[in-house]
Structure formats: structure tokens, C-alpha cells
């Protein structure tokens, strides 16, 4: 009788995991074995898929992760998210108590979309901009699509100390992108882009939202028709209607976390002055304040 050795692997294979990263835990890549049992710090979870997606992680996700398939238990994987240990609000000023220096807590470079948010239509292109303080020649960028990582082409602008990366989503529902300095463990923040095939999109920011920030959630319709009305929802509960197509949340807290969506009524008046009104719903998109 053969002995099956299970393991939990982390994708992308980040040397450090930072606050705001999206990471995937995989139980030995055995898709055909169902269900998979997951344990965090010895406590069984309700999740039963061989793959566990953790979005916009914080130190609350720290712990020891194990999985079980066919009665065999995996070795433990310890996940540590580098971030602030404690936040104290004293006289309306934030004082940070941390175990590490700021340079260790934050990514070494910044990666962000030049325009647009985290959601895009199938086949649409999106430019990401990488900004670093050192030599860009030593940096390479990658994309995680499903369970496979691929290198990306990088267009360098050395004078501006930045690089531009063009990304298009064709098949994968989501794409996590990051850049890394060759021969080191230094990397940028990770950006996750999500694909939709719907006419209506709820577009959250492509970078994590920090507590206290103001965030704008946009309801966008492919083809840029005239918006007649937009209704925003959080966890399928109606928030409010808006003719502008933007929902603003000021002074965000973790109470604002949830799945946001929108329903748009629109008219393609630039095609025909007599065009009929149309309606459509967006996919639900997660907002997580860290």
C-alpha cells in the first residue's frame, strides 16, 4: 500500500506576503479528490475545494493551514502576512506599533493600473505601471492565471523610472500580477484584475482600500451609453439609486466590507436618438478594507 504525502502550496510563490495580496492555497493539486477538508490552526473550515483563494489578506489570515484528502493529512503551511501589528488612535492621530521596520512591511515597488479599476471586459487590454526607485533593468513582471505563472513583456521608461506592462484577459476569470527584482526577494505589490462578460460592470479600486480612505465604486456599461439610472447593492441589499453611476464611501471601515453590485438602466443615444432603454446587472465584486 503506497503512502500519499500531501502538501499545501502557496501561489504566487511570494517570499513574503503583504497586506492586500491575493494568494491561493492548493492542496497537493489533486482536483479529482473531493471533498478536501481544510484546517486553520487545527480548526476545520467549511471550504471543501482543493483550492482555497484568500483575497486582500491581512494579519487576520495568519495561521497554520493544513488540508486532508482521502484520510491523509498534509504537512502544515504557516502563513504570515506582513503588516501593522496594532493601530492606536490617540488624539485623532494614528500611532503604529509594529514588529518590523516599514521597509520590511511594504513592497519595494508600486504596481498600479494607469487608468481603470480591477474589472475589465473579456479581451480588453489594460496598462499597468511599475514604479521603482532603483534600476528598472533588473525587474521582471509575471502573471498568475489559474495555477500557472507566466512572464510578461515590460516596456521600460528609464528616465521616468517606470515601466508599462500591457495585460489582456482572454480566458482566466482573474489574473494576479506582480513584478520582482531579479536575484533578490524584493517585489512590487500584487494587482488582481477580474474579467466579466456582462455589459454592466461594478468596478472597485485595483489596489487595497485602507481604513479611513474615501473609495469610489463605479458602475460602468460597455460601449459608454447614456446612463438613465443606477442602483447599487451590498450583499444583495439595495443601497441607493444614482444617476451618476458612482457610489462614494467616505471614511471607510471594515463594516463596509462586502460584495457590491449594480443594476444600470441605459440608452445608446449616440447610435440612435430613438434607442430603447436597456437594463443589466453587474457581477458582484468584493470590497475589503484593510
TrEMBL record:
<feature type="domain" description="Ig-like">
    <location>
        <begin position="196"/>
        <end position="272"/>
    </location>
</feature>
<keyword id="KW-0732">Signal</keyword>
<feature type="domain" description="Ig-like">
    <location>
        <begin position="6"/>
        <end position="80"/>
    </location>
</feature>
<dbReference type="InterPro" id="IPR050488">
    <property type="entry name" value="Ig_Fc_receptor"/>
</dbReference>
<dbReference type="Pfam" id="PF13895">
    <property type="entry name" value="Ig_2"/>
</dbReference>
<dbReference type="InterPro" id="IPR003599">
    <property type="entry name" value="Ig_sub"/>
</dbReference>
<dbReference type="InterPro" id="IPR036179">
    <property type="entry name" value="Ig-like_dom_sf"/>
</dbReference>
<dbReference type="InterPro" id="IPR013783">
    <property type="entry name" value="Ig-like_fold"/>
</dbReference>
<dbReference type="InterPro" id="IPR007110">
    <property type="entry name" value="Ig-like_dom"/>
</dbReference>
<protein>
    <recommendedName>
        <fullName>Ig-like domain-containing protein</fullName>
    </recommendedName>
</protein>
<keyword id="KW-1015">Disulfide bond</keyword>
Amino acid at each position: 500500500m503506497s503512502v500519499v504525502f500531501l502538501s499545501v502550496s502557496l501561489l504566487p510563490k511570494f517570499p513574503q506576503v503583504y497586506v492586500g495580496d491575493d494568494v491561493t492555497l492548493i492542496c497537493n493539486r489533486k482536483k479529482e479528490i473531493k471533498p478536501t477538508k481544510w484546517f486553520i490552526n487545527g480548526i476545520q473550515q467549511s471550504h471543501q475545494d482543493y483550492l482555497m483563494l484568500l483575497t486582500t489578506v491581512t494579519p487576520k489570515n495568519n495561521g497554520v493551514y493544513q488540508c486532508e484528502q482521502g484520510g491523509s493529512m498534509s504537512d502544515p503551511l504557516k502563513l504570515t502576512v506582513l503588516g501593522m501589528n496594532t493601530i492606536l488612535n490617540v488624539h485623532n492621530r494614528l500611532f503604529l506599533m509594529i514588529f518590523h521596520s516599514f521597509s520590511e512591511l511594504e513592497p519595494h515597488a508600486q504596481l498600479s493600473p494607469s487608468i481603470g479599476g480591477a474589472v475589465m471586459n473579456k479581451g480588453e487590454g489594460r496598462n499597468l505601471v511599475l514604479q521603482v526607485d532603483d534600476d528598472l533593468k533588473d525587474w521582471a513582471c509575471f502573471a498568475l492565471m489559474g495555477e500557472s505563472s507566466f512572464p510578461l513583456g515590460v516596456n521600460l521608461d528609464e528616465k521616468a523610472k517606470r515601466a508599462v506592462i500591457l495585460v489582456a484577459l482572454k480566458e482566466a476569470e482573474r489574473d494576479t500580477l506582480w513584478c520582482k527584482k531579479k536575484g533578490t526577494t524584493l517585489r512590487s505589490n500584487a494587482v488582481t484584475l477580474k474579467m466579466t462578460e456582462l455589459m454592466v460592470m461594478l468596478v472597485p479600486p485595483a489596489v487595497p482600500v485602507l481604513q479611513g480612505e474615501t473609495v469610489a465604486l463605479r458602475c460602468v456599461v460597455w460601449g459608454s451609453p447614456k446612463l438613465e439610472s443606477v442602483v447599487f447593492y451590498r450583499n444583495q441589499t439595495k443601497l441607493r439609486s444614482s444617476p451618476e453611476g458612482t457610489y462614494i464611501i467616505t471614511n471607510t471601515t471594515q463594516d463596509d466590507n462586502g460584495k457590491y453590485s449594480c443594476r444600470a438602466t441605459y440608452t445608446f443615444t449616440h447610435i440612435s436618438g430613438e434607442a430603447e432603454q436597456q437594463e443589466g446587472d453587474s457581477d458582484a465584486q468584493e470590497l475589503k478594507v484593510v
